[in-house]
User: Fold these one by one.
Assistant:
Number 1:
Amino acid sequence: MQIQLNYKSGVPPYQQILEQIKYAAASGTLAKGDSMPPIRSLAEKLRVNRNTVAKAYALLEQEGVIVTRPGKPSVLAGNQSPLKKGVRDKILDELIDAVLVQAHHFQFRPADLLKRFQKRLSDFGNTTANSKNAAKG
Amino acid sequence: MQIQLNYKSGVPPYQQILEQIKYAAASGTLAKGDSMPPIRSLAEKLRVNRNTVAKAYALLEQEGVIVTRPGKPSVLAGNQSPLKKGVRDKILDELIDAVLVQAHHFQFRPADLLKRFQKRLSDFGNTTANSKNAAKG
Amino acid sequence: MQIQLNYKSGVPPYQQILEQIKYAAASGTLAKGDSMPPIRSLAEKLRVNRNTVAKAYALLEQEGVIVTRPGKPSVLAGNQSPLKKGVRDKILDELIDAVLVQAHHFQFRPADLLKRFQKRLSDFGNTTANSKNAAKG
Amino acid sequence: MQIQLNYKSGVPPYQQILEQIKYAAASGTLAKGDSMPPIRSLAEKLRVNRNTVAKAYALLEQEGVIVTRPGKPSVLAGNQSPLKKGVRDKILDELIDAVLVQAHHFQFRPADLLKRFQKRLSDFGNTTANSKNAAKG
DNA sequence: GTGGTCTAGACCACC
DNA sequence: GTGGTCTAGACCACG
């Protein structure tokens, strides 16, 4: 699972973690019964205090998204109502628009922006392919 | 210009104002040289404190989006970011990464994501090109 | 670090704080990686409101002088301005012009002014070079 | 006479005008009995509202630096106590230091800074040589 | 403890 | 009327 924290977005980190895990669950990246990454290692990876991750997990349990049991890894609860395609598209479009607006403001030429996006996309594919193994290892 | 504040998102109001004005500027709803709504009236309309809007305006000026001068209404500047290229690229990359992560969670296939991005990009280009006429009409 | 506020100058306090911290950073009184005085204590010492100091810190971060992170003390960044070269040059030229105008009013001969500038420049270089030891001594 | 307004210094324009005229008088750039530039033309030259210049002139008269008579051009009053050399030097040094600090922050190399200063200095010499005639004409 | 944000209300300088 | 600044006091998120 890939989590991106943005410190300048103004959204509190615990909330960013929360949302991204929820999305991952809703989209099927995480399946029912999968175990979540341990708080400690996730905190370390994100370079964030454990309390911050713990808070996200606590809220996730409160919302019924995960089940935590002391001593055992947290696992994803079942029956996630997956987001409808329309909703998912809307979320993505908003993020894409943010890119477009900023790029326009920076006076990027569309072709250059597209190139940058493609490059980033292929880079991302490679790292996530590796990270899956890294996470398991 | 239409600004909608979302109090549940966790994004601070001054930043939502900032982004939406940037959006309006980028999409052509506001044209270069147009004068901005006065801080006071915008604050009243959004039902926030004057200082909150003032903060957004101050940041917009620092980013080179608008020009403010005491006694005069703020006006939209010619889009010129005062930031170094490296800094601009970094900001853009972070926004792109947010898209990639979300798309990955939603299990979009890279090809589909790219297609969606391209579509959005060309739509955006048309909007900004047409908006001048739309505003006049 | 020593900060002196002058209330008669007309320069807003937040800006005096900004400049003097910049000065301390440039002259080596503060070294890269040093942590800054907390906003609250500095405000108390200067007998100004917390927000006033906070504003100075926020601007210092935007200029790349310090790095702030909620929960952690602010630290001095490696000096790297995020501004475009053209913008940096313009800022410098304005400061230089202020010198020239004043010298002209004082009827300094250009040669004398240049000499004075050179002296000050080399003195400044020595100060920053020695300050590390001075701070330690 | 050369007046430089800096809108980002935080010092109100009327005060900048006031100070620079006082310095000019104190340093001898303006001599007793010289007539001041008319409010209207100075305001135009500085791209500032007439009220702003008028305010500066009013304060100058209040301080006894100039004498204004309706319908006639304002003239410089006599007996300006010229600033001592030590004071003048200190004022200049402070302005020079501001340049050095900012240049250091921008990581200008001393040689480059010096070069820039020299260039600006020679440019300034040329413009002021012309402006004297322009002002008279 | 740290920094970040918002409100409420005040004063200033400029046009 | 405009934008800019400051104070006083509150709440939040993070470590």
Number 2:
Amino acid sequence: MKSEPETYSIDDFKNEKTTWWEGVRNYQARNFMRDMKKGDLVLFYHSNANPPAIVGLATVSKEAQPDKSAFDKKSSYYDPKSTPENPRWFCVEIAFQKKFKKILPLEELKKEKSLKSMVLLKPGSRLSVQPVTPEEFAHILKMAEL
DNA sequence: GCCAACGTTGGC
DNA sequence: GCCAACGTTGGC
């Protein structure tokens, strides 16, 4: 899951301990969240960061429910097409697990042969919530020395 | 700040 | 249902 550190960083997350992943307004990303199960592992990625990098680990603590920020007129995530009766957007709650002592910059990830087909590394890939295979996940945890 | 890649919108 | 216009993402 990607977040811009200026908006919501791994440190913000560490302080809060859990957070509802509100504001995703992309159907593919939404579908991935809807499919998430409690206990699923999550990589926390800093996008638009210096350097862009995987910076931590989380778990899904609550499965998908309607994204309330879509109903809130004052929210920048407000979407009039999503209503409590017929919600269009969903989000999961994730729980903080770890901040990597050794972050994994995008540049390093690109060098890894076994991560070649990661969605994150596909050119033009902008999905803010995206799948990671068990093999990729294991490799990344190893790189992070976990 | 630029811009390429991508997704969405809306006129026809 | 096509597709041009527009908005957004995110690396650089």
Number 3:
Amino acid sequence: MEIPEPTKRRLVLLEHVLSSYSEKNITSQKIQELTGWNSALIRRDFLLLDIKRGASNGYKVDELRVALEKLLQLHANQKKCCIIGLGGMGQSLLYSTEIENSSFKLVAGFDSSVNRTEVLSSRFPLHPTTLLEKVIKEEDIHYAILTVENAEAQPIARRLAQCGIKGIVNYTPCVLTVPKTVKVENISLLTSLENLSAGCSDSL
Amino acid sequence: MEIPEPTKRRLVLLEHVLSSYSEKNITSQKIQELTGWNSALIRRDFLLLDIKRGASNGYKVDELRVALEKLLQLHANQKKCCIIGLGGMGQSLLYSTEIENSSFKLVAGFDSSVNRTEVLSSRFPLHPTTLLEKVIKEEDIHYAILTVENAEAQPIARRLAQCGIKGIVNYTPCVLTVPKTVKVENISLLTSLENLSAGCSDSL
DNA sequence: ATTTGTGAACAGTTTCACAGCG
DNA sequence: CGCTGTGAAACTGTTCACAAAT
């Protein structure tokens, strides 16, 4: 089954909203208040979910969460990730706890400077980038977090695609060209700021 | 003039692509190769741009870049930004050079721990979060980079909205509810990974 | 009474395909 | 002749509005 892109993004975010929602039931109207999304849209999104048809009382939060996790495969299987580029951003992700209670797990880091890979400490091994293909295949890593210099981004993306990576979280402002088998999420600070300001009509 | 959302995002990215493109001319077909976007779509996006109608030779890269920067207001006026939350991610952004040659400028940092704001060194002042409203108004800050703990995200977002912030780059996985006057860009690592994996049909 | 599920209308975006310009 | 600009078609996503369910 194919989940429409905008629906997928909403449901992923909704799962986080529900994880800190303490009531037992929730209505589509209440979700609209919490998120800003039209309630009819939410009900339509839920058509994809495997839940009992209810009414009058809204949805059971527990049941919703189980159905969301199942559809989005959030806790289905452990998904191994690596970080490429251990500059400031890469290092901060190395020590971040953000994905700690998720099904994603960091298992390797890479940097072209052997100095860095040797000096930095981490709960998982750090390798020179020359070993990228070897480690990704041996460890069966599916997702890559790209925090390299701009000039490195596209060459590394190509290598990642070649060894079968499924998705790249791209912290650089570069447009990565990869085969359709590889998904990319662009989350660069600079382009995010530019997207914000290009939207604001009133200059000065 | 209102720029359609998807067009805006493409043009912002395209500007980065062109900034490292060395030829003098470029065709919509070539841009398709570099980005994966359909060439007709690119030509349609360019209808918004203030450029000479040309043909047969493609577009002049210089002229394109000038028109893009004008439309997106990329170098029009200096846009002041602040970071809220000086944990690992906030600190790495404090020292990042990513936005250095852009029209965005970091001018303040905030953290609820006075310890951090006093111990960390930075090229611009760090304040306790109690001074958020005061500093944002005095400095006329328009954009905020949110790197606080999840529980803090919504309360801070409300305060930011109240003091007239135009846009928030949200590094947390929380859905921020703010008035329509405030734009939000969500770039959390966890939700990005979830978006990637929810898209991949083959589990296990 | 309240809230869901959904057909039908609407709105937004992309692609096709080709006339016309340089 | 190659490439742009664009009407028209196709597609995708959202909102409306109301019958059906509890």
